[in-house]
Amino acid sequence: MRVADFLEILDREGRLLAAAATAAGPGADVPPCPEWHVRDLVRHLGAVHRWAAALVAGRATTPPPLGDPPDLPDDELVSWYRDGHRLVVDTLAAAPADLECWTFHTAPNPSALAFWARRQAHETAVHRYDAESARGGEPSPISREFAVDGIDELLRGFHARDHSRLRSERPRVLRVRAVDAGPDAVWTVRLTAGPAMTVRAAEGEAEAELSGPADRLYLALWNRTAIPQVTGDPALATLWRERSGI
Question: What is the pTM of this model?
Fold first, then answer.
């Protein structure tokens, strides 16, 4: 996907999140994140948007501190969020294609700008789903291409990092497959006591497979919904649920 595609999605998802947060109200529970209310979700993502915008604008080579969001009254939070969302969209849109700054995982990205546009788009899409879950009703759709990209970022980016807890004391092999996205939408995840090693291919035998339509699988792998289908050893699906949180 192109940077312009991610920016378009980031813009749309942030607007949807703000609308859902307004409709739900600041005190509403966020079902996918039981420890949060909507005000916590809005404060978190508003701070993340500002942090990412400052990092990109300042060409930071080391991660700046995230900082705490301001202690605003509930009726000002969504407006504050919208300002931060607008800031990160505009900052990324104005950044040069050859931007050099800090990034934090190794998933394939053609540039630092592509990394941050992609990361902010997926961060916002997942939390938009959270806000709409708090509001109730039908959630907004996620495109197949974007969902596949997000699965790839999660598996080959986040879970390749030293911070990932997705590990197994004995070697295990897990397959992940988006059943509606063609033969390239399949990943083989090799679990060991170290960071997972993932290739985007059906490579060798797998002990279990997590599969489903791309949009549903995307949300499931981010632990927002149940995994659509599990075949093989169910213990690997349990391991995913227990250890894959970011």
Answer: 0.96
